[in-house]
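Provenance

Sequences were taken from public entries as deposited. Structures were produced by running a predictor on each sequence independently, with no templates supplied. The record for AAA+ ATPase domain-containing protein from Eutrema salsugineum is shown for reference.
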Amino acid sequence: MPKISQISAVLRLGFSSSRRLSNGSHFIARSYCTSDPPKTSGPLTSYSKLVEQGRLQHDPYQEKVASAFDNLFGRLERFEKEMEDYHVRLAEWEKKREEERRRLMVEEAEKKEEDGMWASMNKHGQKLLGRWVLGRRKMNVEPGVGKWVSYLNRERRLDSIVGSRPAVPQAPKGLYIYGNVGCGKTMLMDMFYGATDGMIRHRQRFHFHEAMLKINEQMHKYWKENGEEKSSQYSISSWIMNLPVDEKVKEWLAGEEFYKQQLQMKHILPAVADKFLVDQQSSKKGASILCFDEIQTVDVFAIVALSGVMSRLLTTGTVLVATSNRAPRELNQDGMQKEIFDKFISKLEKHCEIISIGSEVDYRRVAAKNSVENVHYLWPLNNVVLEEFEKMWRQVTDQYGGKITSATLPVMFGRTVEVPESCNGVARFTFEYLCGRPIGAADYIAVAKNYHTIFISEIPAMSMEIRDKARRFITLVDELYNHHCCLVSSAETPIDELFQGTAEGTLFDLESFQFETETEDSRLRRDVLAEGSISSAGSPSSIVKMLSGEEEMFAFARAASRLIEMQTPLYLEGVRFLHPYFHQQKVYKK
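Predicted structure for AAA+ ATPase domain-containing protein:
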């Protein structure tokens, strides 16, 4: 257990507004976060400076990856300009194609009118249109095959009139970095991501959980805006209503528009991908970068969703940078949906350079050995630790205002998560409250984004009896780490003994986000699986049987490694500069 006299020192270190660096620290996984290198500095320059300053230990494997990132970085400025020009040409092409499409549709409708196709409808045309607008009867449309042929013929004519879609400029190859826990994958990717700030307008960095949740959220939004539930309320487009043509012609045109919309609904993942990285605040389009941390394929949905979204992004010029514990071909060792997975990996290998960080060193542990003791991971669960935990809670909350209140955070799909005790960016929970209930990554992301300091009490040693809680705790640690939260906790055992399991057996780790109570999400999952002609047999309960012991070891080792790094002084220094809470405070002050 840590010494009580060290507590206040760590609090000052973690929560002061200065950028003071710890003396004598030679290793740090995220040390670059507390410095401000010039924006023109590439990843290799930043890495070399940190080594020279003694804040990183030189590692030839890391240097090789930093060099690869530097090569990619050097090509991005030109690619951004190429993509800006491409999007201008694309917008002009899309506008012209839409104008021509509408003209062709009107010509088709007028020809059908001349041929007397709607002669029998003359007496009832206005009435039918009114019913169509109000959704009281289905539109009078051609049989499905005829409609499909009509659509294809129109598309071919458009190709001959407008020309084919502008070719996407060849994107620089992205990077797929894989290696053991704590070898520096995320650090190097974040160095690269930070270097692109101000250079690339449309860029995002996601951890696996957050990316999958965003896919679900975008699917949900798309269905709400375009799905079947809106078909009964469908109204005719304004461009059709304003045409100086007969009402029955307008009805036919509306039917053609609706058919096009139905076809688009069958390809929901590409539609989601098109909005996945777009910066809604920017009116100008350009290159896009996706940094994806801890890419994995934990279940059938993940394989299908990732395949659909990533394939679309890579095809349309997005530069992908990904990290993982495994090489691409080893991600799906259980062979789930092999055909879809193999197509996705082939595309990934075509668009990314695959690099292994061969280092066996866990630098998070090295950093911890060269810093102070673990002063805010308190154990065991005895009276002394409980008193110290309460003392730290009072110290921190007093520093941030002292008034303890409850709060309700929005999650997604209209759900919320309750926060029993909070105070200006600081929150307190029990392990049972966060991990003993059927909640998941969406809830943990909401908590991590809103609170820079999280107190969690009464963390037990994990065993088979509480394997679901252990899985949730690992997901929770991932999100607290990804958002650079400060974690203060009381636990039954030291970190290295937390995931040892018991005589009952080892622990399973599904590592999947959860919506155990969400019927809407289940429907969305079914729709995506149906798109890939996939059965629902790949549900989380069936995946348990397929996960290997090696997957468990990766998950537990990563969680323990991250918990250790979260105790180090330099990690704590980064909280004030990296956590979303403080970024929001800066925005408010402006």
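Residues 363-503+518-589 form one domain.
The radius of gyration is 28 Å.
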